[in-house]
Design a protein that fits this description.
Elements lengths: L1 H15 L3 H24 L9 H13 L9 H25 L22 H17 L1 H12 L4 H8 L3 H21 L1
Helix pairs in contact: 1-2, 2-3, 3-4, 4-5, 4-6, 5-6, 5-8, 6-8, 7-8
């Protein structure tokens, strides 16, 4: 695994330096992981969701290759940015769907565990996004941890690496962030 991560990191660095052939070499290495992240995320969506995993991966990939100013530090950094992009795609999709429907307000959503969200429609995702934005205003780092964990599927150790924290800190902040989001969603 270390060799694979190192190879990805080297290709990301070369791509950041303007080597377009590095992107071609990198694509097969990252495509599978992007697909896994998107698949995990789509499993949380309601049955019959019209956005397909492959479409989500393709959209995320197009946005990632547009990241010409990003200096990729390593594989974890790349997938952290991918998680943010996937979140934006899903939230924008949910907003578009919700805007097309009548009725109002997101229903209350009880969040026993952020990762346990499943079978919910666009309003619930929008409620989660609003709660996450509220968390970001109070504590950007906790918001980043949720985004990386929930939308990116990164492990505690990977999040610790991306954010330069000890894994125990990530675990504590993840628990506090979930408690905050649970309260926000119950108020919704």
């Amino acid at each position: 695994m270390q060799d694979v991560s190192a190879g990805v990191t080297e290709q990301l660095a070369a791509w950041s330096q303007g080597d377009s052939s590095a992107l071609e070499k990198l694509l097969p290495r990252i495509e599978r992981e992007l697909h896994q992240i998107a698949h995990r995320q789509m499993r949380r969506e309601r049955p019959g969701h019209t956005l397909q995993t492959t479409a989500l991966v393709n959209e995320a990939y197009l946005r990632l290759v547009d990241q010409t100013r990003t200096q990729w530090r390593d594989r974890a950094h790349f997938f952290a940015v991918a998680a943010q992009i996937i979140r934006r795609i899903l939230v924008n999709y949910a907003r578009d769907r919700a805007a097309g429907k009548r009725g109002g307000g997101a229903p209350k959503l009880y969040l026993d565990d952020v990762a346990a969200l499943s079978d919910h429609g666009p309003n619930e995702l929008l409620a989660l996004d609003d709660a996450l934005e509220a968390l970001a205003r109070l504590d950007k780092r906790k918001s980043q941890i949720v985004e990386l964990r929930y939308f990116g599927g990164l492990t505690v150790d990977e999040i610790a690496e991306v954010l330069g924290l000890h894994p125990d800190t990530v675990t504590r902040e993840w628990a506090r962030a979930k408690a905050f989001l649970r309260r926000e969603l119950m108020r919704g």
